Structures
1.
Amino acid sequence: MTARAPGKVNLSLRVGPRGPDGYHALATVFHAVALDEVVTATAVDGDAVTVAVTDEYGGPVAGVPGDASNLAVRAALLLRDEAGLGSAGAHLDVRKAVPVAGGMAGGSADAAAALVACARLWDTGFDRDRLLVLAARLGSDVPFALLGGTAIGTGRGERLAPLATAARRLHWVLALSATGLSTQTVYQVLDDMRAERPVRDPVSDPRLVTVLERGLVGALGLLVDNDLQDAVLALRPSLRQTLAAGLDAGARAGLVSGSGPTLAFLVDPRRATPVSRVLARQPGVAGVRQVRGPAPGAALVG
Ligand code: C5P
């Protein structure tokens, strides 16, 4: 069984105070983009759940665990427990297109795709709502990888309200970094930066919601924001130059994706190629991708 799930950017990411569980209250607008993780689950003899991780072309990928700490394996094991299928085994082939530790929730997409593929492989009969509950236990971004599209996220990011965006597509150029950032570290740096200031409960900008519903792409560029951006830029100062270069080349907006270090540039489709060319020449940029959104959530593909 094969399932795919999308990576995401956050059109807005507003971060409130850290709660007693160590997680920050969020008000975010998730937006799934057409950069897919693909997970193939195969039945095996015995009760082991194993994983092999490659890039889109079958090559090796650094920085992703190949053991039981892999989020796709944890997803399969949680599903197996909840379905009472203690002896079912599986091998998971994970093909990654989303950058590792890049702020685009690639690991969460792996988990979402693994849930969908294994639910069918093992015939659990779990519907999407049941899988969403399991997804929230695996990570803050996993429910959105199941849902896809564009959605407001609150709580830790796991409480979702889908947004009916106007049919128009958004075009993005992504500037990838060779090495990722730890989400936990980025949140810690933000806390340190705000230590002396009161931190309010986060609220999404209602204008952003209106602009999305009406498909006003020009205005959207003025409303995207990310409270984690300053923390990411403090950890990776060279990204400032990359952001400026993308904007100079004609992007409508540029921002850090989630907890970074991937940068997402909103572009008019005619500017996608010139912006990509300029970004590809920037120091520290390991690759450039052009993607569209919104993309659908996790689904079986075979
Ligand atoms: O939920 P997930 O495991 O993806 O989160 C990774 C890390 O990001 C957490 O351990 C936490 O440090 C940080 N985080 C946070 N507040 C959130 C989401 C994540 O502090 N709402």
2.
Amino acid sequence: MVDLTKIKDSVIGGEVDDVVEMVRKAVDEGQSVKRILAEGLISGMGIVGDKYEKGDFFLPEMVIAATAMKAGLKVLSPMLKPGDVESAGTVVLGTAKGDIHDIGKSIVGTMLEGAGFMVTDIGVDAGPDKFVETAKENNADLIGISALLTTTMVGMEDVIKAVKEAGLKARVMIGGASVTQEFADKVGADGYAPDAPSAVGKAKELVKS
Ligand code: B1M
């Protein structure tokens, strides 16, 4: 059996091929996809963040680790998505203006798809106009904004204002490492979720209300 801590260590070390190989093997062995994601990939990325904060890692190490994490996520993604199920709602998802972090956002998107939502991912560095236009085109029930930087999370308020000004029916959910419930209340978001599984629960709650 593949030891999931080895996947975590390989994410930290940025060993792309090892991560892909071990994730594939763990899946073939029948290990839980959600555990491979949480205990292998996400947990590894968390340690990378701690190391960067302490000054033990610099930007290049963070980029390489993120590449390994994304390669592992690519293997898992098809297994986190459903087959033919009735749509739970339509979501437009993106990372806030000025922010290029997309790993957490992509996990949230994949898990929403896994729960039956139709997700249009508008990528990173997305401003209010992009969110509003895409929500209009897709008649979205929900807009999801992710931000990891304290400098970019403030831009979420501009998206919320633009959505209200455009008179859209879509509710707005926000999340990302630097975002809190308190911040969500302050900027008038309809919902906040601290992680991908709770984002699914919150999305279901918001589209029903
Ligand atoms: Co950057 N970075 N980074 N980074 N990076 C952080 C966020 C940081 C906390 C590191 C640190 O200092 N400890 C710090 C931010 C400090 C702050 O503002 N408070 C930081 C910094 C400073 C920077 C740069 C400015 C560095 C520089 O250039 N000097 C730069 C900014 C570039 C930019 O955006 N303009 C930068 C760049 C990068 C890389 C490109 C190297 C890379 C990103 C690669 C990529 O995404 N494609 C990177 C990475 C990898 C990180 C850390 C290490 C890991 C982020 C990650 O992927 N985590 C991060 C440290 C950390 O977070 N501890 C850090 C794993 C992921 C699964 O978690 O994204 O939190 P997360 O998502 C979770 C939840 O937050 C939640 O669910 C997800 C899954 O459970 N969630 C949502 C996320 N979005 C949600 C949306 C929802 C609901 C829940 O609803 C819509």
3.
Amino acid sequence: MANLIIFGESMSQQWWHSATVYQIYPRSFQDSNGDGMGDIPGIISRLDYLCKLGISIIWLCPVYASPMADNGYDISDYCAIAPEFGSMEDMQALIKAAKARGIHIIMDLVLNHTSDQHEWFQQSRSSKQNPYRDFYIWRQPDEQGQPPQFNPTSYFGGSMWTLDEQTGEYYFHQFASAQPDLNWRHPDVQQAMHKIINWWLQQGIAGFRLDVVDLIGKDIDAGILANGPHLHKLLQNMNQQCFAPQQAITVGEVWSATPETAKLMTRPERGELSMLFQFEHILQLHHPEHGKWRARPFNLIAFKQQLERWQQQIGNGWIAQFWGNHDLPRAVSTFGHEGDYREPSAKALAMIQFALKGTPYIYQGEEIGMTNVQFEHIDDYRDIETLNHYHEKRSQGWAEEDIMTGIFRHGRDNARTPMQWSASAHAGFSKAEPWIGLNDNFQQINVGQALVEPDSILYCYQQLIALRKTWPVLVYGEFFMLLPDDPQLLVFKRHLAEEAALVVVNLSAEPAAFSYNGHGEQVVGNYGNRQQISGHYQPYEAVIFDLGD
Ligand code: TEU
Ligand code: CA
């Protein structure tokens, strides 16, 4: 396809720019064999549903062999399937069945760390002379037996260093001690991982989501973890050895990303990644000292400033557009409205997402407006991050209610309750008690209900997915923010050659007035069909107008 000039930069068009990705968290998507755990045959049974939605790519969260300390983000064998999800034959059947429906699969590759049960780590910890010793990061204790000076708190609580009795040295892990960081400075680590990547591409997958990929360039002795000095070289090597030869699609999870670093990682001429997830709209919710556990309310004006910066500064780089994922609270509960305006606000969030530059990612259940959950007791929670946080804060004297409020609002299990397929037992997810509790609103909020409702959230997503495939102005149009300081209205324009679109969203629970000097035709709306752009907008009313040429 021809190149475009966007904000003065030459942009080569890719099919995955206008495609939509659907993220599946396998353990919570569909159980096929009645053990209460989602699995790969369950996913195969739902491919026609995804096809009907108009999905082009599935991002499949880890299904590799794993002790499941972090639900599969602790891999013990990259080329084997965890039995609870099925067999390698099931995985090959999924790839084939998806391809037959025109759906590509990208797999979640956890390359920053392995499970401590991985053969490499078992060898590495066995002796200081073992050839695998330097696959990981080991340091001598100091005279007092303490770990190195550089000793940040792990994402899951506690120190990032764990003393291993066998050889009396500390090993480094940014997440759980069951997830030792790989030493990416070691050429054998790079080669071993390239081999795994190429093996999976030969199985017929289309690419990868790269877990915390900005951490692999770390320089521990310089105290640098994210966006380290070795990152770009490592990504360029990986691209040359693996991605480019097979036109693989890659999306990096990059919590540290800024528009500047994102351009370095995703401009096509740099030969690194296809696109990345940046998290500024999530991080703005985090408390400066207590992060997500004492989160602040969503601030629309701050959001608009970030949005304008990203949309205008990413140039010919590319990003993923998302509201939620398996680590984040439910989008409609965080950015929309859980009560009377749940449906219009869920559609409003979808319309914003699909009207922006960047590939849209739908997290399972977002298409029906699934909400956060509030389990009675901490024992009902499953996530290692949540459980470690609870026990750590209880030991530090935090009130139970304070901790639970943080978990209700931002705990990762909000996104991991079983997919709500129907109002029948266990929401049609399983014939048995699921591995984690259901959200008790599944009888009102489920796919079966959405499919029989002509103006459901689901059909709004279906319309937006189709629209992006046929209206390039939404995919490539230059972005212009209007009313930057308005606390209720998000209004922006997209321009491409003679085409122009105007997006007007009242992202509040109160009516808002908007006046605009010009005419447009409603293409998508969540409150019936507007004839005028100017006027009053209902709570969470959103409209995409075609301003014509
Ligand atoms: O997440 C990276 C990560 O840092 C998140 O866990 C984040 O810190 C936290 O959830 C924000 O509150 C990736 C995976 O998406 C996550 O599921 C894994 O637990 C983690 O890496 C380790 O692999
Ligand atoms: Ca199962």
